[in-house]
Amino acid sequence: MEPATLQLLTDILLTFVYAGAVIAVLMGITMYTVLAERKVCGWLQGRIGPNRTALPIIASIPIIGPFMRGLGLFQPLADGGKFLFKEEPIPAHVNKVYYQLAPVIAMVPALLTVTVVPFGVWWDSVGVKHPLVLANIEIGILFLLAISSLGVYGIVMAGWAANSKFPFMGGIRSSAQMISYELAMVVSLLPVLMWSNGPGSTAGLSFYGIVTAQENGWWLIFAQPLSALIFLVALFAETNRLPFDMPESETELVGGFQTEYGAFKFGMFFVAEYAHIVVGSAVFSLLFLGGWDFLPFSSFNPYPENWFGSLLSIGWFLVKVCSLIFFFIWIRWTLPRFRYDQVMNIGWKILLPLAIGNLIFYTLILAIYDANR
Q1: More exposed terminus of the chain, fewer Cβ within 10 Å: N or C?
Q2: Which DSSP string do the residues of 9-45 spell out, in sequence order?
């Protein structure tokens, strides 16, 4: 076999291995985000949360067993096993093809978006820094916005295929909410791109370029606070989290679009929602919190140019992501759900005008700056 062909096959194999590792890590974080949801919920409400589940072989260890059981660290495995092995009847009145296809369409975009999200850096043999990412494409932000917006089709399809009033209303609410808040989210990103692509910058539409533009200087949460606030609120709406969980809205729609679902299909919707939270937290960290940059307004670089530095950059990035995940959970168990008319008013009458005004303001600031250079 030719050396070039062998190298190509090796690169393809390593890419598949790397992709599998990234998906496995994302799924692992998603599983334990569910556990964190239940533990933080218990803590905020003065309860304990899951504290019994443990593998028998580990539970029998004298010191480690009670500790692991008390934290409920094996609860995600128990929940996943229940979803996997539970009986899965299909209601007679549903449209069976679309009913079974909807969870897949909801879950695949949630996992696909992670391909353009860098989560650290590494250095090659000559000391050049590269992002740790599956696909470092120049239009990473555009790709993520396009793919993540496809998840709503799974929700709409689930609501329509159920042939039931409440799921159908949940699907309609989801599509209206996505349109309302997607506009504000995209407009809020335009000042970020304008700031990151200033004179001499080559950031483009890639996440790595935007993180590089924030290094040794202003994180964009300080330079663009209104954009960060609008993006964060829109992110809550896009992930269907309280106080924007209109598609589910248990007190009004029983279970919304997933009323007719159970077992593994319900678990796929569940995983899709929490995967969106994890990826959304990562994207916010990259855009507004400097990604793996250690501190704002500082040139201090704690990362040695080797594998240990790569691990440190990944660890610091995950600290920011986990902090945002905690914020998502905290908000859910603190604020009440908005009414549907309030959700629409916030999206169209508050967020979108604010985003447009913010864009005009930064356009004028940059025009004045360029005129006085």
Answers
A1: C
A2: HHHHHHHHHHHHHHHHHHHHHHHHHHHHHHHHHHHHT
Q: What is the pTM of this model?
A: 0.89
pLDDT per position as a tens digit, 254-263:
777 788 887 8
65/124 Cα distance (integer angstroms): 42
Tokens standing for residue 323: 């902090």
Residue 290 DSSP SS3: coil
Helix (H, G, I), strand (E, B) or coil at 59: helix
Q: What are phi and psi of 237, to 5 degrees?
A: -70, -40
Q: What single letter denotes the amino acid at residue 300?
A: F
Cα end-to-end distance, the chain, whole Å? 58
Give 127's Cβ-side CA count (13 Å radius). 1
Q: Per-residue pLDDT tens for 173-220? A: 888 888 889 889 999 999 998 888 876 667 778 888 898 888 877 889
At residue 129, the 3 state secondary structure works out as strand
What mean pLDDT value characterizes the chain?
84
Please list, in sequence order, all residues whose beta carbon lies within 8 angstroms of the beta carbon of residue 147, skipping any fewer than 6 positions away. 109, 112, 113
SS3 (DSSP) at 159: helix
Q: Element (H or E) spanning 123, and its range? A: strand 121-123
